[in-house]
Design brief:
Elements lengths: L2 H9 L7 E8 L3 E5 L7 E5 L10 E6 L4 E7 L2 E10 L2 E8 L2 E6 L2 E6 L2 E2 H13 L4 E2 L2 E2 L6 H14 L4
Antiparallel strand pairs: 1-2, 1-5, 2-3, 4-7, 5-6, 7-8, 8-9, 9-10, 11-12
Helix pairs in contact: 2-3
Length: 162
């Protein structure tokens, strides 16, 4: 069963206006799709239904070459939006001053000017440079600093630093 047949069945509407197309180009908030059935290539397909200046947004960016279900906005066939996609290139979520992004390079979690990767990196750097006062003077750096550095490198493989 194809994605379009499933969508029709779920909507219980045999006259659904949803169509399946292949993504051939992706921009910031729009993409270009090919229906692969002889119809013209469709440019300007929205990645979010409403294009406005609202910073609070959820954006699902399809991978080039993936298939998407597109549908008209307010029954206007000239204005289409991506509803679902078969492969995701990137996901972005912004709520007020909090920003979250996932892509093949990892996760980015940012609140205002701080991001999780840099905060954790700074924490591990601080741990690695800990010295403790003793009766004979300050101690040396922790003997397990190499372990903390390894943990830091592992974290930075998962988290992106903006």
């Amino acid at each position: 069963m194809t994605l379009q047949e499933i969508i029709k069945q779920l909507s219980k509407n045999t006259t659904t206006q949803l169509q399946i197309a292949k993504v051939i180009e992706v921009g910031d908030q729009q993409c270009t799709v090919d229906f692969e059935d002889g119809r013209p290539i469709l440019q300007g397909v929205r990645l979010k239904a409403v294009l406005d200046n609202n910073d609070n947004t959820f954006l699902l960016v399809p991978k080039i070459g993936s298939y998407v279900a597109v549908g008209p906005i307010m029954n206007n066939n000239a204005v289409q939006a991506v509803l679902v996609c078969s492969e995701v290139e990137r996901l972005e979520l912004k709520i007020s001053s909090t920003y979250f992004e996932i892509d093949q390079e990892g996760f980015l979690l940012k609140i205002q000017s701080e991001n999780l990767a840099s905060v954790l990196s700074s924490l591990i750097d601080a741990i690695c440079s800990i010295t403790v006062p003793t009766a004979t003077g300050p101690s040396g750096v922790p003997i397990n600093s190499a372990t903390f550095t390894t943990i830091k490198n592992r974290l930075l493989k998962i988290l992106k630093d903006a």
